[in-house]
Amino acid sequence: MPINLNQFRGEIGSFYNRIGFFSQASFSLKNCFKESIQYLNCIIWTLSLSTLNPLDAFCYNFNLLFLSCYIFTTYCFDILRTHNGSVFMCNYIFQLWLSCLLIKLSSDVELNPGPRLDSLYNFSISYWNLNGIMAHNYEKLSNLIAFNSTKKFDVICLSETFLNSETLSNDDNLMIPGYNFVRSDHPSNSKRGGVCIYYKSSLPIKVLDINLLQECINFELIIGDKLCSFTVLYRSPNQTNDQFEEFLSNLELNLEFIANKNPFLVTMLGDFNAKSQSWYNHGVTSPEGNSLDFLTRQYGLKQVINEPTYLANNYMSCIDLIFTSESNLIMETGTFPSLHPKCHHQIIYANFDLKIHYPPQYSREIWHYLDTNTNLIQQAINSVDWDTFLDLPDVNLQVSRFNEVILNVMSNFIPHETIVCDDKDPPWVNQHIKRLLHDNRQIYKSLKCFRNNLILKQQFKNSQEYLNNEIEKSKVNYFNKLSDKLSSESPSCKTYWTLLKTFLSNTKVPCIPPLLHQNKYVVDFKEKCDLFNDFFSDQCSVIATNSVLPPDCLKLTNTFLSNVDISSGDILNIIRTLNPNKAHGHDGISTRMLKICDESICKPLHIIFKNCIESGKFPLEWKKANVVPIYKKGNKQFIKNYRPVSLLCICGKIFERILYNNLYKYLSSNNLITSKQSGFKAGDSCINQLLSITHGIYESLDQGYEVRGVFLDISKAFDRVWHEGLIYKLEKNGIEGKLLNLFNDFLRYRKQRVVLNGQVSDWKLVNAGVPQGSILGPLFFLLYINDIADDLQCDVKIFADDTSLFSTTYDPNDCARSLNNDLCTIQNWANQWKMSFNPDPSKQAQEVIFSHKINKPNHPPLTFNNNVIDSISHQKHLGVILDEKLNFQEHIEQVLSKINRSLGLLRKLNSILPRSSLLTIYKAFIRPHLDYGDIIFDQAFNNSFQSKLENIQYKACLAITGAIQGTSMVKLYSELGLESLQSRRWMRKLCFFYRVYNKQMPSYLTDVIPARNKNYNLRNPLNVNLMRVNHNFFKNSFFPSAIIEWNKLDLEIRTSVNIASFRKKILKLIKPSANSIFEIHNPMGIKLMCRLRLGLSHLREHKFKHGFLDTIDPMCSCGRGIENTAHFFLHCSLFDTKRTTLLNGITNINSDILNRIDSEIVQLLLYGDPNFSIPVNKSILKLSIEFILNSERFISSLYQ
Q: Are 233 and 270 in contact (CB under 8 A)?
């Protein structure tokens, strides 16, 4: 605990009183007066400094104080022993020594520390050359995070990051919670040099795109109305004279560029690898330092670090520098000790007298649902006479009363509290770590005063190493505790996934940074809310055209839908299927509240829903939405790079679900939704449409033709639906009467507000578009866009608003004519129904010509909206890149690049999480990227791409098991029970074809299968006719290849009653059984045992067989034979003592085990025995792991 300043001064006074007592003590100091005075002076001098500046001097002299007290006390005891001094003297000396010890164990002297009372604080910036940000598994970054938890720098600058393009900037390993990350790598893209900055997400910082200097970042910060400019850079010490002259010239241009912006403050910091006595009095001046000093003085910059920043052995220099144009604004500057013993650069910092606003705190209401008595809640709701209470003609009054009762009941029976949300330190940065950081700084401060003190140097080195180890230990302990919880939870449990996400992300939900609007930064959250709301509501507008509704509404069907029947059972079924974790709307009624009520809530909702239909009114409260901005991509400071997510009232969404079910059933039964549409339709999907598109293209290419594909980009389609036009189309599709009135009211007078960090914008009216986040919105959009496919000659494919046209070029002129006609028709449709396309004319429509021809014919140009359409080599459509040859090479390369970066996560967690959790991460978060679209691109590419894909899973298995590169892929897959990706694609292809064959897919896919041959062989009644193909690329595509594989399957598999049964039978053919580890959670031990299982460990026989250069023979160093697994476990004399524990443990389990032959015993030690129970096998494997670890045979290879 920090001590109070007055208490500290009191201790000093008490100390002087005790010294006075010593002078009057009843014993002779005749023979030792001179020595006593020396020790007294030493302590008095130390403490007297505190009277001058107790806050600083006391901290700087902790170690000297403690050492002096110890020596003085020892000396006094010696005097007493020699001269028979008073016992009272011993008591006083002991009290003195104990007081000093308590002070030593205290933290820095602070002035009444406590919660912040001011909303402003001083801006601070730091810089550290950490010599490799990824080194030692990001160990230095972990130390930096721990250190910053005590300092909270606004900007953290780092150099020699050693990053390149292989590491993404959004890699979770690189993130510091609450900070944004910007980097500038070495221009050669090699892992050397480079700089980066972390800055608080709440700061209005703009990174400048100057690019005059390499390994340099320029950024601006507006504080109040003052523009402050900062530059962080790194200069290599290996520059030649010419390179330095070029650096100096570019630096001057950089400074000139900044000066032209006329900033209030200019600050430049970094590792300049230059020395000057004008910067550090005790240093030397290098030619580079002399030139740099001259240049900076020209621009009015003063260097403010006047102490060594690089300490290595007996060498020290000041090369990490901070230059500033306003040194009078600096309140404090200096160095902090390096955070890693192998990094010799110290941290430099500066605190400026520039006031920054603290990020606003906000509160949240937390409901403790687990402590709820549901029976009492249901009794309270059932006690209400809802028929009388809701006997009101106005649905708005009914909803108001309903909300009042429900919230009152919940407030009374569910414990709840309001908490303040604020940024917290990482959970592994505990008080012990903060104490060690503090102690390390105190030793460093003493060392700065006595730089030649060898004892302090060693103490500082030991402190650094201990701190480094304790931080790593704290992280491991924290994650081990989470891992233990993870091992005890079921993968189907919510707690399991909550814990798993703790490992998967190093960052919290990102806050919205200051927004750049009209060249000004908006920091206030209320203003941010208003800006977002203005932007989002402006998107919901109808395009101004001269179009009017057609005079006659010709019905498309003889049937109609004018009413909806609602039962309490319908409402209850929907409530029970609600996701309890979904966010609620502005009314405060959550999904959990409704699920707690269960049947008791159905009656009041039924009354309200019935009144809504009868009156044709949708409650106003249910038409209001809380909107949360979600970042998409690009610069986070630009509003346009966010999309809105609307949170509607749960009760309103229940009503919507009932209406949706009835409307969709009506539309589907009357075939009113075009078959060209695949979006938001039950039984249809992106993959279905992609398969239809690619099959059509392959078929044309196989016949020697080309295919022209045009991809259209409708702009803000959902937000710009014309309400009058939508009602017209609903009526045209047979919706009428009360239901049409209800839908009309559902669209009108909708409002939204933006919610951020507890702040809200004003409500704004939404005049167009289908309601975002609603249940009915997507279906309404399908109806609105449904007739875009009418009167088109070419093959059109629609997925929600993604529209594409395809035409086979039997004749280039005819093909172009048809496409241009259809494009004109679509443009006319858009004008009629007030829709628009991408504002960029070059992106409104883009064309890919699919062709295998060497000599391609000339194709007449296509035009859309009076612009010639650009022809491109590939197009990403529904998540798959379609290239002009349709070989999917670009798509596979992108998938490989994306997943390779994800494998680092598995490697990072390998030593923390149990194998089962690592396997879950792979299956849930990595393999789906490999699965998506695999039935389309399977066998479409050459063997090298198949090998690259398989290598991804192989690397994942290495990370999961800890196996060594070179381990057999077959053994590795068998160890984990994973099928190969090639086998998996084969299985998924057949499962998909099963659904097509059994008419469980849309007709546009089922119709592709050739009609069954009437003259089929009676022994194979389920065989499908083969397709006629001319080229292998078509033969290898989905339908031709799937039919071939289908016909090879046994009839027993093909006649499976459902897809689940079919898939289970296919998996039996391809999936190996996993080797069990019997739920043992010992990541390091399991890793080493797994290597022995797989036959590639650091045993000499394993290394010799796999050609390790450092192993010229397989003989064991004990001299008693080949060092194989059996020798290690049973015969090696080096481990006889430790083997005794293993063999005794095995004998206690089953004395007959040791009578088996060596190979059977080794098999048992590594895998267990299927004839034994799970607890027995678990005990055997635990003994094996204990022996492996205690032998220390593999310690050197543990992290390889």
A: yes
Dump pLDDT digits (tens) for 925-940: 899 999 999 999 887 6
Give the SS3 label for residue 322.
strand
Q: What's the pLDDT at 112?
A: 38
Q: What is the rounded average pLDDT for all residues in the chain?
A: 86
For residue 993, give the amino acid letter.
Answer: F
Whether 1174 contacts 1078, CB under 8 Å: yes
Residues pairing with 336 in the sheet: 347
C-alpha dist (Å) from residue 733 to 233, 727, 742, 830: 66, 10, 16, 20
Q: In whole angstroms, give the CA distance from residue 1097 to residue 370.
A: 49
Q: What CA–CA distance (Å, rounded) separates 584 from 581? A: 9
Answer for the pair 616, 741: CB distance below 8 angstroms, yes or no.
Answer: yes
Q: Is pLDDT at 745 greater than 70 in this prediction?
A: yes
CB-based burial label for 123 (10 Å; 0-12, 13-18, 19+): buried
What 3-state DSSP class applies to 630?
Answer: strand
The answer on pLDDT for 1014 being more than 60 is no
Task: Report yes or no: 1142 and 1183 within 8 Å, Cβ to Cβ.
Answer: yes
* Beta partners for residue 515, in sequence order: 522
* C-beta atoms surrounding 539 within 10 Å: 18
pLDDT over 90 (residue 711): yes
Q: How is residue 600 written in tokens?
A: 């008791």
Inter-residue contact 384 to 409 (CB < 8 Å)? no
CA gap 263, 256 in Å, rounded:
12
Q: What mean pLDDT do residues 811-828 have?
A: 96
pTM of the model: 0.82
The predicted-structure confidence for 759-812, as pLDDT tens digits, reads as follows 999 999 999 999 999 999 999 999 999 999 999 999 999 999 999 999 999 999
- State the Cα torsion 249-252-254-260 to the nearest 10°: -140
- Phi and psi at 1093, nearest 5°, equal -60, -40
> What secondary structure letter does DSSP report for 1127?
I
Residue type, 1043: I
Find how far residue 1053's CA is from the centre of its chain: 42
